[in-house]
Amino acid sequence: MRHILSLLLENEPGALSRVAGLVSARGYNIESLSVAPTDEPSLSRMTLVTSGDDAIVEQITKQLNKLLDVVRLMDVTEGAHIERELLLVKVKAATAASRDEIARLTSAFRGQVVDITRGSYVVEVTGSGDKLTAFVGSLDPASIIELVRSGPSAISRGAKALRS
Questions:
Q1: Is 80 exposed, middle or buried (0-12, 13-18, 19+ CB in 10 A)?
Q2: pLDDT tens, 120-154?
Q3: What's the CA gap between 29 and 49, in Å, rounded?
Q4: What is the pTM of this model?
Q5: What is the CA radius of gyration of the chain?
Q6: Which of 93, 116, 133, 141 has its CA 20 to 30 A from that of 44?
């Protein structure tokens, strides 16, 4: 089962590598990892996606909680949560027909064209991983020049918070 772990980390050099090293050293896979500053300058928030049964995720959680850099950890997949992912895709757009098709698909997926050159568009789409996969699947594979996905960021619904 897929789990999304949210962590508050001390904003210290090496904290990210200590977390990633701990997880990988025990043979667990990290499907995606994102880290960004929070509103508190001394803390960063990490979103780590991994897969495994409950025993594996419990072991990962226990090990991460032993790290001094980890202030708080929450498995947001245990409750109601919202997750979003960002996709940037550069596609060929050399003809009027291809530009029209890209604009139509982008609108249908509530994305936006964020860069236009003579021969290409860069499209941004946010949403669930399934939505982004569907968008990429709707594109002509030969038209894709390059794409990047952020991996999910997630937050629990309601009053439950990582910082409380």
A1: exposed
A2: 999 999 999 999 999 999 999 999 999 999 999 99
A3: 9
A4: 0.85
A5: 19
A6: 133
